[in-house]
Amino acid sequence: MTSTTDTQTAGSDRGKDASSESRTYGNFINGTWVSRDELIDRYNPATGELVARFADGTAADVHRAVAAARKAFDTGPWSQTSGAERGELLYRIAERIEAQVERLAHIEVQETGKTIRVARGDLAGVVSHFKNAAGLAWQTTGESLENLGPTLTAVNVREPVGVTGLVIPWNFPALILAQKLPYALAAGCTAVVKPAETTSGTACEIARICEEAGLPAGVLNVVTGYGPTAGQALTEHHGVDYVSFTGSTASGRKVIEASKSNLKRLALELGGKAATVVFADADLDDAADAALFAITFNQGECCVSGTRLLIDDTVADEFLTELVRRAEKLIVGDPMDDATDVGALIHSQHLDQVLSFIKQGVDGGAKLLTGGERLTDGVHANGQFVAPTVFDHVDPNAAIFQQEIFGPVLSVTRFHNEDEAIALANDSIYGLANSVWTKNIDTAHRVSRALRSGTVWVNTTIDGSAQLPLGGYKQSGYGREGGKHGLEEFTNIKSIQTRIGKRRHAYPHTRGPVA
């Protein structure tokens, strides 16, 4: 096993706190860690320190991984094991992850720049998804149809779709992996995982945990590397039956093109531009807290971030005064400090993109209420930090209203009635999530039904559980992750019909003696 040439291995528990020593990982293919000379260096976005080195995977690496997954599915035991056996193994994996949450959370912080509090929450979610998938493995069934007449019976059975390619983004490396992988395994599929090139650590660590828990060789493979090489090779590979991709809408279009090689099935969880819709009768104290959380959670690097605040004009001035006061009290700094509220953005190119959107907001005439600049003093000196930013009076045609920013930048637009609020919320090419704030049950139901998004939160935001599916409308993609619906994504439905008794002949006039 050669996952490292440095100080820590993917299979080691050394450095429980994932210390400043860098980790080096190879690819995990057919139960073996395979090192490569070509490596991708990952620097901590908060400090600039080298924290990890990942194999720069090639198309050849992907081919070997898919071949291993193909063999494990076609001739190995995994797809033929009972749901109970798969569930028991998934639960063992969940327990092992749970025992290492702190170490895995520290790896997430070092590679992503997110705060340790958010990272711990992510890892708790990982455990929940593995446990939920374990339970679903026991419970997933087909259906029988007994009302087709006295001589015909039929069953619809769910079978694993086959070899799956799971492409993971950089913003929630462990959590989004867990929204896909355990459900694929619960269904009986095998998998090749391609994590983001900047944040592959927890995918490799979870692969190690799966191996130690007894997952057969070839069932799970991890190839790290860049999207145009390793990612492209995986999504266009003829040996892959199904791809589950999370990333930008632009990248999703490339996945669609690549999938045409063998018309493989896809699930795409893409961009978002969620609205937080606040009516005058809402609990404004709760709504202010939620609106701030929705845009600063994970530095705003979240597909369901409440990046647009739509506020009833009658309460807007008072609400925004309080919101800005709270925003200016947030602690932006060292992600490893439990007191920190907002960490560092993923890398310098993304920082520049966020700052470019802020400039567009200012140049476009929106009123900057707070923030708007990069932080460079003290603890921020070597990191990619942006102050939480709030714009008021944002035109619905403005870039900061329409385009996904993926940073702590809030665009505020006022409305005068319910119809206008709904129209503004739906004025987006995206449809992943929205939240509604009101104490009027009629308003809550009407608006929730009218919003064109896969998730609607009422009097809460960025909330949920492993039992609930996640997915989008419009250009936010299609397919669902998590829960029963997420598992069903990894299955094919086969109908088996059986005729009882002697067949009614279609051509009785042709009958003759039958030997």
TrEMBL record:
Presence of keyword Oxidoreductase: yes
Region called Disordered, residue ranges: 1-23
Record-linked InterPro entries: Ald_DH/histidinol_DH, Ald_DH_C, Ald_DH_CS_GLU, Ald_DH_N, Aldehyde_DH_dom
Span of domain Aldehyde dehydrogenase: 33-496
Extent of the signal sequence: none
Active-site annotation: 269
Polar residues composition bias: residue spans: 1-11
Record keywords: Oxidoreductase
Protein family according to the UniProt entry: Belongs to the aldehyde dehydrogenase family.
PANTHER family noted in UniProt: ALDEHYDE DEHYDROGENASE-RELATED
Protein name stated in the entry: Aldehyde dehydrogenase family protein
Source species: Nocardioides astragali
Lineage: Bacteria, Bacillati, Actinomycetota, Actinomycetes, Propionibacteriales
